[in-house]
Amino acid sequence: xxxxxxxxxxxxxxxxxxxxxxxxxxxxxxxxxxxxxxxxxxxxxxxxxxxxxxxxxxxxxxxxxxxxxxxxxxxxxxxxxxxxxxxxxxxxxxxxxxxxxxxxxxxxxxxxxxxxxxxxxxxxxxxxxxxxxxxxxxxxxxxxxxxxxxxxxxxxxxxxxxxxxxxxxxxxxxxxxxxxxxxxxxxxxxxxxxxxxxxxxxxxxxxxxxxxxxxxxxxxxxxxxxxxxxxxxxxxxxxxxxxxxxxxxxxxxxxxxxxxxxxxxxxxxxxxxxxxxxxxxxxxxxxxxxxxxxxxxxxxxxxxxxxxxxxxxxxxxxxxxxxxxxxxxxxxxxxxxxxxxxxxxxxxxxxxxxxxxxxxxxxxxxxxxxxxxxxxxxxxxxxxxxxxxxxxxxxxxxxxxxxxxxxxxxx
Length: 411
Hints:
By secondary structure, this protein is α/β, with parallel strands linked by helices.
């Protein structure tokens, strides 16, 4: 259900109906509040308001006798009140358990009002993950509303969410793409009005705002579909976190656009930007003792990026600690990648206690119990490109400048 909501939350002209008890809508509201606070923390504001979200407000008796009548009433109310260009229905666990025939109700109301109504098969958390609803509704939007059209020259479509157009990821990618002389014409799904969906097929290129998890796999499939059906060239293989990945990303953009020489110029500008900041950081960071503590599985954390940051800041890394949160196979997988990326000794939590105590700064994926250790918490979703690298370096620099020893800084 929350996945359906996130896929269309800012698509002007849409209305979302949760066929659910009232409390289920609280999940979506909480997600929105968290997103708004994150945006405000970066001195930004969301540019658009979210679309209406309604609940059919199922009750106990509906779990026994069925809730289709309540759903039909809710759909009629939504259409007559908001005059939407499309309705999306997300089913709760309750609706799935009792087996409400949601598609039949949606079909009848659609025929009566001539308003498209999209439904999804997944129900709450029954046999499905968050992303199932997100990608199922994305697929139905593509099938129902996106049609072949004339390509818009030098245009790019961003695929994915990652905080929306006002989030760091999209803003940084947009900034770099502008250096290549191309224009971002939309971010799909979720951030294009229903009337603008034709632009999805009009884009010459698509850039996936992905990562390393399940989201990236689903977004890549969307990009492949756009290429197959509309001839949209795409970039999806590189997650530009850290300087090396950013370089690879810029070079790949230049190759896809056929502007390899321009890519070298853009790369030079980004390198100059990073070098200027390093000149400011190095007098403080060079030679300082650090320890890297890792407790996340490889799917969500690759040590290569932070190891490169350590190298750029000329920190003296005395050890890498694999925390006790791993099972055997997960630890072996991470150990292998760590050893491929570094010749620094690897320790267990117990073996590394003295290293943590002696370090000037500890870079860690988990908060440590040592209250005297000056810790930098490595984010689950690190910020991208040179701006993200500078922000990470700045956090390390500021922590080392602080007179206080101990505490956790979140970058």
